[in-house]
Amino acid sequence: MCGQFKPIFERVAGELALPYEIYVLPDAPFDVKKLVYKHSIETFPTILVIKGETAAKLEGAKTEAKLKEFLTA
Questions:
Q1: CA-closest candidate to residue 61, choices 1, 12, 16, 21
Q2: Residue 1: its pLDDT value, please?
Q3: Contacts of 37 (CB under 8 A, 6+ apart)
Q4: Do the domain assignments include residue 1?
């Protein structure tokens, strides 16, 4: 995750009381790397929200407002 975007993400996730895990490629575990290919992630940073079989992604560093909008949708 982009060094400039990480604090914004952590602040928003904390405010919204969302559980999260942050992975940085190429050091991510193999199962996380499989998600990159499965969901065609090509832009970094990418926020991938997985709920059961449904996944939503937000690509590129965004403003705090855009991140909150995405995470609460």
A1: 1
A2: 56
A3: none
A4: no
Residue 57 confidence (pLDDT) above 60:
yes
Taking residues 40-60, report their average pLDDT.
89
For the chain, the domain total comes to 1
- pLDDT interval class at 6 (50, 70, 90): confident
CA distance 7 to 41: 21
Q: Which domain holds residue 57?
A: 6-72
Ranges of H-type helices in 1-73? 6-15, 30-38, 64-72
pTM above 0.85, yes or no: no
Q: Do 68 and 12 meet the contact criterion of CB atoms below 8 Å apart? A: yes
- CA 54 to CA 50: how far, in whole Å? 6
Question: Tokens standing for 13?
Answer: 């996730």
